[in-house]
Design brief:
homodecamer; GTP Cyclohydrolase I, domain 2; four-stranded antiparallel β-sheet; two-stranded antiparallel ribbon; 3 helices; globular; binds calcium ion; QueF_type1 (chains A, B, C, D, E, F, G, H, I, J); GTP-CH-I_C/QueF (chains A, B, C, D, E, F, G, H, I, J); cytoplasm (chains A, B, C, D, E, F, G, H, I, J); queuosine biosynthesis (chains A, B, C, D, E, F, G, H, I, J)
Chain lengths: ~160, ~160, ~160, ~160, ~160, ~160, ~160, ~160, ~160, ~160
């Protein structure tokens, strides 16, 4: 066994690239994918992204969040450096928390066409209240659509302890 | 993509407003909503609210709690600054813990007409005992009513460790 | 809206009462209830009680526990100060851990006639071993009986880490 | 109500006994039981046992574990001091981790004839890897057999964080 | 009862062996198994492995992870020292995180032929994002295949808090 | 030995008193003291007060804090129920965080005339930043004045981890 | 080397004794000591005692605390089972928190005549406030008196986080 | 006593101001101060700032940190909303971690002329390593200069556990 | 640079040795040392040993502890596998907790002749109380003797939270 | 103000460099430094490095550690990417834990000539025991030499809790 070969990686233009350019305006086109080598199997990939920041659409004030993304790949996996650049591109973009997680999920669905995906944002508080939106999606007409419904029904029965400190 | 536009936000009178007036008597009318831009999808929004305080209806002593609110929006989302003002309006209001969480949920149902909602209050102890009421609701006659029943049946199988310190 | 009125609270003889008498022999008669104002809805009330102490029936040695009580009220709720006095009444009473949680649940069923109830005791160790009994109950012949069976089947799949320190 | 009476406890020869003899060779005969006073009800009893030690069958090196035991009693409960002595009797006994938890469960089934039982051992690492075997059992031909299958299927979906420190 | 006998252990060439040779190139042949003495029972064995390291296939940079492996044995159990050597053999091997967990599971399926198995890798972040792939497998055509599907559907509803510190 | 006698407690008008009146405007006169029975010894008394709330002097918005108070008594100790009422009296009072802790300390110095005292407030964040003022005082011209200087110099070398969640 | 010999232990009447009688009225006479075998060396012994309970001297309500005791022995060490019985003897005794820790320290000074000793009580809250008194003592005219002064001056610069839950 | 009066707050142009403008280029001029009302006393004010972000000066990649600022005021205190705006102004500014904390301290010294100040930055990792610079300063020629030296000598003897997760 | 050479390690008979014999009676002679290659520098070596077990000298009941050992080497360092075997040799040895830590320190002083050493044992509770003895030693007549006195005076000002669970 | 200029960074050959080569044999020459822009001030820089791995010099088995490095710069700071490469270069290098931390400190002294430096390694256990060596150094003949002595004397008075899980 030899691991991923040079050839399998040739479409990844960002990983290990020196001259990375960081975009701070919403740029979904930066997302890159690579081939899933285990398509005969359902399995999960999760990204933990604690360095997300965007702007409040009304006041322009910076917002901060940790974003958790989990998906079951079909033919493609999203490459993590391109995901980093994509998330950084919200830096000077203004939108509600509820909109951000839905947009992120929509863009990942478009580029990966996964079997299942979910996105959970956990934002820091403003005025003593923090907001944590969660959305998910399963390919329509498949068992993954039912999976999405099942996971939503079971979502977050145990809210984590939050005391704003 | 441009995020929420100025026009979409024009009905929000409180967010970013300088002359905010803080009401300390129960004021459900202060709640404001905005349009849900993802109504084709079921997703959760959670508010973590660790700065809730009210009064004991019998002794007048202040009570303190963290309130967790989770809902699946239909056409409307509740704006978080108005939610803050609403919760602050319990400051000089006297009621039992069990009543507070039910009232909060009733008011949010009225103003948002959500698909599903739940409210969990975790109060600080009096006399060595703390009380944590939890209520939920799904729109009658829909799958969300069953969802409420399912989530109640699975509620809090793992009570958090509490030692009053 | 006005919260609980003076009149609704007139049967509560203990809450806010100056001359509280603490009983240290098993006294189930001290329990008091008040009216549930939300009987059209199933919801949970949980009590966290980390100040429980009783005696070993064989050696007379004091035992200590945290007791967690959760129930779905029907017509009545148990008042928390009377619950405190009731639990304090085990102070000089001798019984096995397994018996204590069953007795507490039996007494609360009798006084509240709830739809559903569960009691979990987590005791400190003797001889390096600690004991945590858990019992529950749903009104026979109703969906709450099935709820009790379901919650027992799902009980404590993740035992908390205990190292006796 | 009077708690456990002297007479009910007369078969317990170890609890409160001064001349306790500690056996360090596998001694299942030391286990003692007492009558379950609540046989009309399914309820759980859990033992947390962080002071378990045995020997590696190949190298003779001491092994250490925390053992979690949960069961639903039928007619009998195991007395905790006798359980302590039983677990101490593995002190100079050599066996694989996988075997220890199965043997403990087998012995407890024999002496208590419970409705349901499960045993989870969490051992300290050797060579950077730790092993946590888990077994369970429900009385064959009853709903408890299905309960065992259900709990196995749901076992440990959230492995605790282990970093060997 | 005497525990594992010398004879039962005679095929284990690595455990307790002085001259252990550490291989740092992918070496699945190093895995050894021993007989499962409890084949009449479904039970879980979990390995916690916080000392996993491999290389990035593109940049050659070292990666670090904690690997959690859980399985239900059939006729054979994997011996933990051989598992250690196997995992150490990824030390100078380059592969994507998503590939590593799938390869580890494939190799363990081949050598143990278990009833059920799952592998979860939790890697440290690169560029602020960490990746946690999870795969599982149940023997095709048996109830364990359904178990795999069930556990995937319920996987990681509560992502652990990650803040890169 | 008999503990505190009825007579020693006769000046405490609030402890155990049924008709407690809760004042929500700054009321230092509510503080009560009792005799220190161990004046020949320097010792510390600490109060943990996680239920403090006041108003922002500019915006009127409620603020929340945990207040820690530690002192070495001289002739008098402050009674804890009167301290509770005193702290509750900031409920509708507006002042900066920096002022609140200094005022609390000044009032306690006046009523107790302690040898040494310190007050630390830990507030919840506004706009992503939380403020924790700390002041202390030792009786001028005594070793306690030097103690105050020493403790200030060693104050908070290890700021607690704060992430606003 | 042979460890403590039977003869060295002959004055310990409580350790391993079957007929232990638990006293619930303040009983300092129950304390027993044994010989310190390392008197040529200053070293610390600490007792962690999380099972302390007493009564409020005014209201009779039970109080609960964890008591930490640390001392440098001179000729005698206090035996831990007798310490347990002594602490249990506060069970039906009424006193202020500030008095309890001073009394415990006084009694241990009398029976052990240690070089240095300190006692810290951490009580559960009443009315939202918890009290943690701390006292210490060094033998007058020795370096241990200075040690006491030094440790008091450095006491508790980092109050633990308390949120009453 | 009346708290801060309107007049005392008239120089604060940002607190409670609706039209706050967020600057994302280094803007030390945004800092505002108010009068310290307790100048006769040395006391500490600490700011916890977990929402700091800047850019790497070489690669342009966003960096994230929690900044802890502690100071002893002299005549002036820094207003927290202006501090927020100041810290946000590093958003699109590129500098090394070591430089950022020194610059922040220099700017605060200039605007407040405090007696003592310290700044500690805790950044998220890049390439598996995180950097935490800490600087402090006491007014030259005063005891605060010695205080700075003392606190540096005692700085961070207990590095927090960091595992990049 | 080549690290430790084969020759430097030739006196270590236990490390990597296959036929390790585990002794369960007190065996100080098993301790082995190797040369300190950095004798021109004072530095600390700490051993964390959470797998310590011994017997109660009076009752024979097993005791369990975590032992922390820290020392500044002079010419010799103790080899960790021999330390493991030494600590395992207390397995069937009966002694008081206070004696165990003093004996361990005495034996390590004898074999290593360190500049400074300290030993802290943290035992699991019996009868609700746990005991944590701590002793230290500096070479008489050197600055290390003063170091021992200094560290004892500063020992454990912050007792860890213990709740026996 | 403009932050670090391109010119100031021109000697850093590794930061942002695409073709990074990872060396796995001890390579101190890879370390690079940049100019300290704040040489008039003593301040600390700390590196948290949880991804350190080396080999046992006797058995060849991989070891794992978290390394904490803190220093006060003089004219130069070590660049963190070069530090990463340096630490990675121990990957196939065999040495004792005690030697590794001393070597790392020696190399950093040579390349940076700092005023003060300390290195703390926290390794994972072998045979149930983990080893944490700590060394430090201050420039001879300066106050930093005394600082090193002071910090060693105060080192690790509170060993972190280690239970090997
Ligand atoms: Ca805020
Ligand atoms: Ca928190
Ligand atoms: Ca209370
Ligand atoms: Ca707690
Ligand atoms: Ca614990
Ligand atoms: Ca090991
Ligand atoms: Ca751990
Ligand atoms: Ca990173
Ligand atoms: Ca973390
Ligand atoms: Ca936090
Ligand atoms: Ca708490
Ligand atoms: Ca990284
Ligand atoms: Ca961490
Ligand atoms: Ca015990
Ligand atoms: Ca604990
Ligand atoms: Ca641990």
């Amino acid at each position: 066994m030899a691991g991923r070969k040079e050839e399998e990686l040739k479409d990844l233009t960002l990983l290990g690239n020196q001259g990375t350019k960081y975009l701070f305006e919403y740029s979904p086109e930066v997302l890159e994918v690579f081939e899933n080598k285990h398509p005969d199997r359902d399995y999960f990939v999760k990204f933990n992204c604690p360095e997300f920041t965007s702007l409040c659409p009304k006041t322009g004030q910076p917002d901060f969040a940790t974003i958790y993304i989990s998906y079951i790949p079909d033919k493609k996996c999203v490459e993590s450096k391109s995901l980093k650049l994509y998330l950084f591109s919200f830096r000077n973009h203004g939108d509600f928390h509820e909109d951000c997680v839905n947009i992120i999920m929509n863009d990942l669905i478009k580029v990966m066409e996964p079997r299942y995906i979910e996105v959970w944002g956990k934002f820091t508080p403003r005025g003593g209240i923090s907001i944590d939106p969660y959305c998910n999606w399963g390919r329509p007409g498949t068992k993954y659509e039912k999976m999405a419904e099942y996971r939503l029904m079971n979502h977050d029965l145990y809210p984590e302890k939050v005391d704003n400190r």
